[in-house]
Amino acid sequence: MPYDDNGIFAKIIRKEIPAKIVHETDTVLAFEDINAKAPIHILIVPKVPVESVNDLQDDHAQIMGEVLLAARDIAKQLNIDEKGYRLVINTNSDAGQEIFHLHVHLLAGRKMTWPPG
């Protein structure tokens, strides 16, 4: 299915919808999840139009590295880097992906269990 340029994350990236932004670069935007699953729940979104991991191309390697570096920087900024945090990428419906713009969940502020469910 083609990328939806009118999706909620595209609108947040364009600043058409407000969000509590915690980190921004030319290529990555991170903001608080309004449907938080942990005391700290940040969504880290590449600014390129990619629906899911399945849609990544080889030339997206740089930006996905920047997404992970943003997670590292946010964890340091929030002082959760030492205690711990979880990064999650859901791909398609069975995995729980609801917004079809690739994004990474940064979860922290409570003890995480395994397996997730």
Model description:
The chain is an alpha+beta fold. The protein has a single domain, classed as HIT-like (HIT family, subunit A, 2-Layer Sandwich). Helix content is 20%, strand content 21%. It is built from 2 helices and 5 strands. It has helices at 8-13, 61-77; strands spanning 21-24, 28-32, 40-46, 86-88, 104-108. Strand 1 and strand 2 form a beta hairpin.
Summarize this structure briefly:
The chain is of the alpha+beta class and 117 residues long.
Largest pleated sheet: 5 strands, antiparallel
- Name the CATH superfamily classification: HIT-like
Order of adjacent strands in the largest pleated sheet: 1-2-3-5-4
Number of domain units:
1
Write the layout of secondary structure elements.
Blueprint: H1 8-13, E1 21-24, E2 28-32, E3 40-46, H2 61-77, E4 86-88, E5 104-108
Antiparallel strand pairs: 1-2, 2-3, 3-5, 4-5
List keywords for this structure.
117 residues; alpha+beta; five-stranded antiparallel β-sheet; 5 strands; 20% helix
